[in-house]
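ok so I'm stuck.
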Amino acid sequence: MAQTATTSNRRFAAVACVIMVIVTLSIACIFYWLYETSKENILAQWRNETQQAGQKISQYLKMPIDAVSFSAVTVNAMQRDGKSHEEVGRYLVAETSIYSSIISDNTTGVYAFYMGRYLDGSGWTPPEGYKPMERPWYVDARRNRGAITLVKPYRNVQTDTMMMSVSKLLDDGESVVSMDIFLDGVQLLTENIAENPAVRAAIVVDKDGFVLAHSDKSRIGTRLNSGNETDKALKKAISASSLKRFEISPDDTRIAFGEPVIAGWHTLLVLDRHRLFRSLRTVYAASGAFLLFIMLTGLVAFLYVNRKNEHARRLEDEIRAAASIYMAMFRINLEEDAIVCVQDNPEIRKCLGEEVARYSKLAADMPDRLAAEQSRDLLGPFLDPATLDERLAGLDSITQEFMDMEERWVRVRFIVIRRSAEGRLQRVLMAFESIDEDRKRQENLRRLSETDLMTGIRNRGSGERLVRKCMAEGRKGFFCLMDADKFKSINDTFGHGVGDKVIIAIADCLKKAFRDSDIVFRLGGDEFCAYADGVDSEEIADKILQRLFNNIKAIQIPELGTRQISLSVGATFYPATRRDSFEEMYQRADTGTYTSKKTSGNVSTFVLQETETN
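replied:
not stuck anymore, here's the structure
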């Protein structure tokens, strides 16, 4: 019996030992999984931090790039129209005033080398011997042949900050529009990130390893040191990854993340591995306690897992929030010609219909169901699955913008999910994003650049451009120049504030006298111009001018007292000859204005080729 009991006890002890070993191994596996999960969550947070820093820097640079692009378009048009240096200079001053309010204080304004002469919108006067054609902003723009150029940054000795130029070559191949911006915002971003004890260095470099911003200010303006193992590994990773994000471990003590930015720049974070995972030491202490006190550590493990699951849910919510910028998303299996809705949108679903199964059929029907008529020719080829593989060769994403049935702007994007071993597309994500607000913002910026800021009517550049367009299309019209009589004496007697009120009042009278479809603009000072499309009768033109004169007589400005405002007008018609031009038409109207000034009061003079009529 004793021997049997002993044998039984030994068997029980053996079973207990086996159970304990199994439990211990199970607990060890669980805590190892928790440890690895925690490490991955921490790394994911820093990957996200690096990505956000890259996005902030890209946004910081995007507005100056857009500003130079818009300005270059207008200066190109002015150059084609033969505008003088003075006219272009005034335009640059106006643009600088606009951008200084939009881009805040990180720019010195717009400047240009225009037809052999340097023009500056901020009023800066170059020192003697300054040669624009030898400056990097000009040389690099010429080298890039019309593409937007981000010139290699340099240190401003006066402010001890990094600066860079954004430039663009104009169509004549000689003139360049440029803007300088300060990179102190980028430097501040690196310093803020480096406040975390786990960060050894926060760096922004260009594609050649030139340091643009660094949490250690002494490194700004240097290059990644080939003698430093960490710098060497970072430089190698930048060259290998090109414009893709990367993650490397230069040695056992460091982890580094890289995120691409505009113009081949990279945001780099170098982290201290020891500090990064210091919090995980508690896991080892918990695992030891768990082996000794199974029940207690079981509860701790439950709470810990629950906390991790909650963290995972928060991360999922953040990912879902990031995806919410898209109106709808569809996953497409190109091999099976199948499409599945990932994120639904009632409006798009209504347009596409309830049954969405085969992508090839959907791609054929979608332009007619979803796009406005003028956008269907753009959307159809973009959705074509037969050419999608070729168009996405070597790319991760392509986009196309179109107008929907409600004439709102939408961007559709294809994103590669998976390719075969041979590189053929297998699965892609099709995402729809509303960009109507961005389009409206861009249109507002364009409208501001074409508007006279004081009066609200068109400025000289945009007005003259529209008149020339009408003439080029062969549309007849009535053209007139207007000059306020004795305006200088109003400024001298009553002050420039009253003079401004007079200019604004005249502009309002012009808007009331002419149709909305007519072109009314301010030439500058007290001079205005108008072109009435389709009006080729002197009788009708005279009625328009009389309506204008009646409006002028009705102007009431208290500061002027009994003094009346009057205009001298020179008028003509287009065309006057078979080879009539804008310059000839302008000269005829200018001659009429000169004649009208000889008579006081609201007077108009028509100049029809060689004859004049009052």
